[in-house]
Amino acid sequence: MSAGATWTVSPMNFTSSATNSASSATNSAATSTNSARSSTSSAPVASTSVLSLGRPWIRAVAAGLLLAASLPPWGFWPLGVVGLALWVELLTEANYWRRAGLSALVSVSWLGPATVWMADLTLVGWPLALIGFAAMHAVAGALVPPDHRRQVAFPAAFALAELLRWTWPFGGVPLATMAMAQVSSPLGPSARIGGPLLLTALTAVAGVTLAAILAARLRPAAVGAALVAASWLAAIVAPGSEPIDVNGNPDEDAGVIVAAVQGGGPQNTRADVCEQRAVFERHLNTTLQQVSTPVDLVVWPEDVVHPSPDTAITPARCDQPLLTDSEARAALSDLARELDTVLIVGFFERTADRDANRNYAAAYNSEGVPVDTYDKVQLVPFGEYVPLRSSAERFSDELPARDVRPGPSDEPAVLDTPLGPLGVAISWEIFFDHRARSAVGGGGRVLLNPTNGSSYWLTVVQTQQIASSRLRAIETDRWVVQAAPTGFSAVITPEGDVIERTGISESRVVQATVELRRGDTLAVRLGAWPVAVAAVLTLSLALGLGRVLTRFRPGRKL
User: Fold this and answer.
1) 302: which residues sit within 8 A by CB, 6+ positions away?
2) What's this model's pTM, rounded to 2 decimal places?
3) Which domain, by its residues, includes 301?
4) Bridging pattern class, strands 256-262 and 490-492
5) Nearest by Cα to 260 from 517, 518, 497, 479
6) pLDDT tens for residues 147-156?
7) Are residues 175 and 286 in the same domain?
8) What is the pLDDT of residues 322-336, one digit of tens each?
């Protein structure tokens, strides 16, 4: 261009250039906005709910204490839903380790008070158990995404962590569960469909729903409420059982008179050979003095018949002669004949080879003849058998000298009697839904729970056992009869209602008319697998969806 050239600008060219520039800026802004929205979809969402007020660690402790307070012996079930709502709002933390740590703190604050009875049995084992439980819940909390997906992922992760705690290690510890806490809530009937795992997941859904309501997240609140309502309605119309007579014929008016015998005595005691006769005689005398006749079925507690061999020599420290095997069996036969009843009694004795112990229930007919036995299958770790015995004996001098030999797990948990097959879950087994399924799935017309909680400190275990028996009644649609030497003994309807219960240490008989029933609920037929699979798929979908959104968000170059 020459030095004398003149600059000219066309108005049209200027306008076009400005328009293109503005359009480019607009597109750039739109791209930035879309990118920001996409990244926000997988980022932590700051909660504006009242549940987010205060320091996270304080809220974690509060959540755990609320969960504990929802359990027996305290037992105000709405607190469990509030505790879970607090927990899910803690999981907005972006850092995996913070989510894990806060979840572990919730776990310890919940299960510490709810399992404090363990400290009396093993001061070393209790904190180790709490650490193990906390690790399971920490992993579950870390897996839950911190964004809106946590509303779907949390119930699934929580249910899976609880399933693991109930089954592992050493058979699991299904105590202090949210399922037993919610047995009195409107969610309780859902156990008839999917057992305790479904009830646990739905309780978490209720917690998520409450959190959404308090944060004005209307869509997830509506979805959660609809899911809870649908489950409740499904439980109402789901198939169950029907009353039958002794011959197995349908009969709405049929029933049998059952007596659960509690001999009474001190609580927080340990087994002592010198006390075997006293325990036996307390139950014998209570039966003779308090059972009203006619009676069709009398149930004694677990292992209150603990005889010594006929040749055993009474130790000098004992105040009275040992209870011998032949003496105990003769007295039981006489009792069944005198009452003209089917008698179920709990035995504890050495095996024939003398290498182990047996814990079993024996059935006598009205003629005093033993007709069947059921050996306990689900044993108490470190109480009835000792895993890793060589290591465990270094930390406790109260371990059993020999293990209890479990019964065959592949056989139905029933006693065949003149009243038909009677389902049995001995003591600890009532906490395990699969043992109740074995009993009822094997034809059990009623579910018997002979138990013995006399060695436990406080009443935490005993009250949780009543809650668990109520849960089993709902799941199986059966009457449950629980008999304990020092409490609690109870009769429970298929709806989970306790119609009568004893107190601690009192000598008393609970007597009532109960129905024999047949037919299986969905929980008995299907077990925990459908809910467990659904939880795995739900959690996997929630985690996988986040990766998909992150990978394919607008503006990202692949």
Assistant:
1) 346, 348, 359, 361, 426, 427, 450, 451, 452, 484, 485
2) 0.89
3) 243-311+319-385+402-524
4) unpaired
5) 479
6) 999 999 999 9
7) no
8) 999 999 999 999 999
